């Protein structure tokens, strides 16, 4: 049976997502201030043996949700490498793409628009150029399609949501 266009488009989407989110995770060292802070706090969780509270240089770090540290700790069980520490963010980016696909499918009612929305989300460079792209705090971004109402995306400044 010959695959139709929808099957080929879905495969292209998966390849684009894989290339966009997972290739190059370990290409650069942890250079961002947030990456270093999250990594040090995750390492401190292992050193202290306490996975219920986060500390950075001995001081409590309760300003960030603990889920991001748990995800990093789970990925770092195989070693503290750039790839392992960025893997949760890449998985959340993939989740973000799937949420965009689901949102567009429900909003527009057709698979073609949903695939296009997911492909744009997977390959958009705007979010990736910001400092927040590689930060584990991206765990909260998959919910953005459901916060949308009209032309604003649940932000005080709609231009900042782009």
Q: Care to describe what's here?
A:
By secondary structure, the protein is mainly α. It has one domain (5-161). It is 54% helix and 2% strand. The protein contains six helices and two strands; from the N terminus they run H-H-E-E-H-H-H-H. Strands 1-2 form a two-stranded antiparallel sheet. A hairpin with a 2-residue loop joins strand 1 and strand 2. Helix 1 (5-21) packs parallel to helix 5 (111-123) and helix 3 crosses helix 4 (82-108). The longest helix is centred in the middle third of the chain and has 27 residues, at 82-108.
Q: Mind telling me the C-alpha Rg? A: 18 Å
Unreliable sequence segments:
127-162
- Quote the distance from N terminus to C terminus: 41 Å
The side-by-side strand order for the widest beta sheet comes to 1-2
What coarse outline follows from CA principal-axis ratios? elongated
Strand content: under 5%
The succession of helices and strands, N to C, reads HHEEHHHH
Helical amount = 40-55%
- Average per-residue pLDDT, rounded, comes to 74
């Amino acid at each position: 049976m010959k695959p139709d266009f929808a099957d080929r488009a879905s495969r292209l989407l998966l390849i684009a997502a894989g290339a966009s989110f997972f290739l190059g995770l370990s290409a650069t060292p942890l250079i961002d201030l947030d990456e270093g802070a999250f990594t040090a706090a995750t390492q401190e969780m292992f050193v202290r043996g306490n996975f219920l509270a986060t500390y950075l240089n001995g001081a409590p770090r309760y300003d960030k949700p603990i889920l991001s540290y748990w995800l990093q700790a789970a990925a770092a069980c195989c070693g503290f490498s750039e790839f392992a520490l960025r893997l949760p963010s890449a998985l959340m980016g993939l989740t973000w793409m799937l949420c965009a696909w689901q949102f567009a499918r429900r909003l527009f009612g057709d698979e073609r628009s949903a695939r296009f929305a997911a492909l744009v989300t997977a390959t958009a460079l705007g979010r990736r150029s910001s400092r927040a792209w590689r930060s584990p705090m991206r765990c909260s971004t998959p919910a953005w399609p459901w916060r949308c109402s009209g032309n604003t995306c649940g932000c005080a400044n709609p231009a900042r949501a782009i």
